[in-house]
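Schema walk-through. Below, the input block comes first and the output block second. Nothing else is stored per chain. Lengths vary across the set, and this one has 439 residues.
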Amino acid sequence: MTALLLLLGLTVPSQLSQPSPNVVLIISDDQAWTDYGFMGHSAIQTPNIDKLAEQSVVFRRGYVPTPLCRPSLTTLATGLYAHQSLITGNDPANTKENQAHAAKSGKAIRELLISNVDRNLTLPRALARHGYLTFQSGKWWEGSYQRGGFTHGMTRGYPQKGGRHGDDGLTIGRQGLNPISEFMDLAIASQKPFFLWYAPFLPHTPHDPPLRLLQKYQQAGRPKALAAYYAMCEWFDETCGQLLAQLEEKGVAENTLVIYVTDNGWIQHPNGGYAARSKRSPYEGGTRTPIMFRWPGKMKAEERPGLCSSIDIAPTILAAAGVAVPTNLPGLNLLPNLLEGTPVERSVIFGESFAHDIADIQDPTASLLYRWVIQDQMKLLLTYDGRTGRMKYPPKDRSPQLFDLKADPYEKVDLSSKHPELLQELSALIGDWYPARIR
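--- output ---
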């Protein structure tokens, strides 16, 4: 069996001779990579996530390939880039192309988009086949929880009322964690390992934190919208603390792999809404997030200086669970490096951004706005003419942009004119990663 798994690309560490670990995936919703105590924010307090970071392998330079919630979550669920899953935006546009696809298939346009989840092996489906009980809570766009392969969950999903992106699941965190507690009790009583998808609607709008937290952050000169967002970040942190405490109270923390990531960034505009170069954008404010892994007694807590991408999370979870990693997954199985404390041999990661509304659900390039690559500290953005739909900040300048993230982490100085050879080299890397007919 071991030989077969090695042939399929799965490393089988000796530590995994023990029972399969539980896995808890915590997914923040619309939070900037800077907006944590441990990441150095001057006002926002996140004591529970800070403690988790102290206990984890932390990649401060973590990224999501696509900075919009639905495609970002789909990457976590499938281990695929958005252009591979064909789920590139939040909603399908009512275009002539999509109408034609729907007419040919006999399905509604939204149903046709969701059907992509049926043709891909999802993480919960793969784990369930391996004996796991799996639970969905929070954001979930791809129909019901059952359709995504979860054995248990909260979201009824499209075409049910309110089924666009989570319905009943969106109450988790905001209205307590009781459904999660009951699920863990069931899994423990069944003597089954469990996988928990915790993607609460936090700190996402509406920014309506408890009054006690809002008052904590209100002060002279600070706009109310900013104070409310800060309070939402702490409210989310409180729920993370409650979830981690449940693992301890139920006696399962030691054999539970906890993974933390954000779906996309968010820079709160002082007057409400989000600022440019955050959500939906390919800049650091949209794509960067801390990514952390905690497995007590298995992984040594430390900070890693290298790059990490959320595309790596699915194969790493599968490997930890003893499930063979499908060969079509483009991410890295980080498990051997995390267990052995060895560096991740990677200097390049990629990403892409699309319009909010999908112009052609069978052609990702129809809505393509950006592709990007980071090599060590250098980041290249390439811009395209995809149809923008409801894109709030459509790109106007189509010129390449090159940034030195070490010297210029907020991407203020475009170096593309000064480094033509590097521009050509990085452009070639993007073309090799995602060869496509670009409009």
